[in-house]
Amino acid sequence: MRLKDKVAIITGGGRGIGEATCLRFAEEGAKVVVADVNETDVQQVVEKIKAAGGEATGMIVDVTHRAQVEKMVADTVATYGRLDILVNNAGITADARLEKMTEEQWDKVIAVNLKGVFNCGQAAAKVMIEQKSGVILNASSLVGIYGNFGQTNYAATKWGVIGMAKSWAKELGPKGIRVNAVAPGFIVTPMTEKMPEKVLEMMKEKSPLKTLGYPEDIANAYVYLASDEAKFVTGAVLSVDGGVVL
After folding, report:
1. Is 80 annotated as a binding residue?
2. Would the annotation count 13 as a binding residue?
3. CATH number of the 7-187+214-240 domain
4. Helix orientation angle between 66-80 and 116-131, rounded to the nearest 10 degrees
5. Catalytic amino acids?
6. What is the pLDDT of residues 121-143, one digit of tens each?
7. Domains in the chain: boundaries
8. pTM of the model
């Protein structure tokens, strides 16, 4: 088991890529904290992990609220004695063209995708610095690297978390902490279900593999980066996108 006895917090762990990551981490022996705003989703993932013989704890957390994030980290340490891995996966979209995007749409996406990552990263780092070890993984996106029509807010946040990862890698590396980002391409999740079918077909055609990715593809990337197999990898952006060129 590649993550045996490691303690991992995975935000946005109730659905999609977050759920797949929780399940894969548990399969690899990690003690998983499933963190999400939806209590039903959290409990379902925890139950799946326990039914498969894994260990998990559910926590209802809004990553935009610092007090909730700090409590999540404190409760994790109180329960398991340490925190080895943070996967900053929680994220949302609120798409619109630049001229039609509202301030509310901008603020909402920035709050979850950017401030939420900062809140969680800062709280986790304080624990990891004391331990002199840890791994932080930020969920970026192909959109964060290349931009995308109608996603000014989302693209800005996903580029921003790359900047955070690279900055944190420099700051925290001497303290024994690795920080990386994963940039998924178009993945079949509840989020992409909102996209028009013709757009999804176009994305398939852009990939040399002629297919969309699946949550497990991203979860596997997180497992690698969280494991000792990636002990010399920090400040990197791992694109998992099927070779899509925008």
Report:
1. no
2. yes
3. 3.40.50.720
4. 30
5. 154
6. 999 999 999 999 999 999 999 99
7. 7-187+214-240
8. 0.96
